[in-house]
Amino acid sequence: MSLQVYNSLTRTKEIFEPIVPGRVGIYVCGPTVYGDSHLGHAKAYISFDVIVRYLRFLGYKVRYVQNITDVGHMTDNDEDQGEDKIAKKAALERIEPMEVVTHYMMSYFDDMAALNVQWPDIICLASGHIPEQIALIQRLLDAGVAYVSNGSVYFSVDQFSGYGKLSGRRVEELEEGARVAVNIEKRNPADFALWKKAEPGHLMVWDSPWGRGFPGWHLECSAMSMKYLGETFDIHGGGLENQFPHHECEIAQSEAATGKPFVRYWLHNNMLTINGQKMGKSLGNFVTIKEMLQRISPEALRLFVLMSHYRSVTDFSDEALNSAEKGMARLSAAVQALSQRLPGAPEGSADRETTAELAEIRRRFTVAMDDDFNTAEAVAQLFSLVRLANSVLSAPNPATRDTLERLMAEFRELGEGVLGLRLKERAAGSEDLTDQIMQVLIQVREKLRKEKQYAMADEIRQMLAEAGIVLKDEKGRTTWARL
Ligand SMILES: [Zn+2]
To answer: Which pLDDT value is given to residue 404?
Structure first.
């Protein structure tokens, strides 16, 4: 069977055929870096990480491009109104917008590294691609699908017949839905900003042929994806919440400028809920990745995300987290048992029955992944592998080294390679050992403080801080965490 993907544009599962045989270009909308990444980001970027890993597993040479939005994303984006999210945060904290960007971009990459999300091949910042965005606006003006109004430039949705084809919305609906007279610069309320004139005092501004201002949020993704992947490329990914208006606008801008189809396959990940409720700052159930990693291991969080399909809603609950943590422990225990038995295992050819079962598990794993990256089923196959490993290890006749190595190879290739689960590091028990050592240090420090040897106690804290470990004293209890 060959790989099939669900294309949001055609609303069907299609056989995946890249434009250039053997190569795949994929673009995924990155975060707007004005706050720490939350669990929704974990779901999105783990999902696309596994998609990229599986494409590579199939032998494709992949170029994975992801943007970082550091300008132009307004607080009220559907209306092109409000404040720039980054500038707002910078003003609040009285720092430079680029300090906000640097801080939260690094925070995002730290989270991704913790979750074992591989780096995209190209990471591009919107503020670093202003000339490309200005050139794209000029093309749209030349094509007669955009207009200048009071120093801003808008895309005229009436001039592009394909507007609405991704989200299924009609322009007339949008006109009715848009707030009347909210923006008198627009000819049609459904038009969207390509370039915004800067108000006096606006922090992030650039010169353009239309005056000083900044690009509209949707524009960066068109300009940068086409720069690095070509005017038509294979896969565009992102969260379902970005399908409209963001991705609809990307299609309009790109196709109206080039006259070519923009993207072959649109892939959208669904959202993440907490106990069945949508997550949001206003609802008070907003959880950052850093907060969650205080409670569970990054491997368990990753496994939890992969236990549901990327297109279904993932619901967070304590039971679900516990089962992910237990599942991860079972996986690691099997790998650990294998690695312990390997050195003393007898020589000899691999057991035929085990080899046949391994081939069957691998076949079912790839069938699942070929079916629009069904990681839930792929994870189930990984647990079939655990059962097989356990039965081989507990069999009366000791398994040969070759048999054990073949089992280990499947864990490595499918579990670590495709699903990106760090099995071996966990198996080595390094986390448990670290925690044991930390508990000893915490007790020593506690004893020192009781004996009023505060200087020495503080020195322990200081030395740990230098090693990237922070101690927290709360409610008479001391816990530790990595910075
Ligand atoms: Zn985007």
So the answer is: 97
Cα 256 to middle of ligand 1, angstroms: 17
Please state, in angstroms and rounded to a whole number, the distance separating the CA atoms of residues 382 and 416. Answer: 10
Strand residue runs (E) in 240-299: 263-269, 272-274, 277-278
Collapsed DSSP state (helix, strand, coil) of residue 268: strand
pLDDT of residue 425 exceeding 70: no
User: Cα of 451 to ligand 1 centre, how many Å?
Assistant: 58
Q: Whole-angstrom Cα distance, residue 108 to residue 38?
A: 9
pLDDT averaged over every residue in the chain? 92
pTM of the model: 0.86
The residue whose two tokens read 């309009």 is: 252
Distance 221 CA to ligand 1 centre (A): 5
CA distance 280 to 111: 19
CA distance 217 to 231: 19
Domains parsed from the chain with CATH numbers: 4-274 (3.40.50.620), 315-427 (1.20.120.640), 430-482 (no CATH)
CA 58-61-66 angle, to 5 degrees, is: 110
| Residue 115 CA, ligand 1 centroid: distance in Å | 22
69 alpha carbon – ligand 1 mean position (Å): 8
Q: What is the mean pLDDT of residues 138-157?
A: 97
Sign of CA dihedral 315, 320, 324, 330: negative
Instruction: Enter the tokens of residue 177.
Output: 């839905």
Distance 197 CA to ligand 1 centre (A): 21
CA dist 135 and 385 (Å) reads 53
- Is residue 108 classed exposed, middle or buried when 0-12, 13-18 and 19+ CB atoms within 10 A define those classes? buried
CA of 247 to the centre of ligand 1 (A): 7
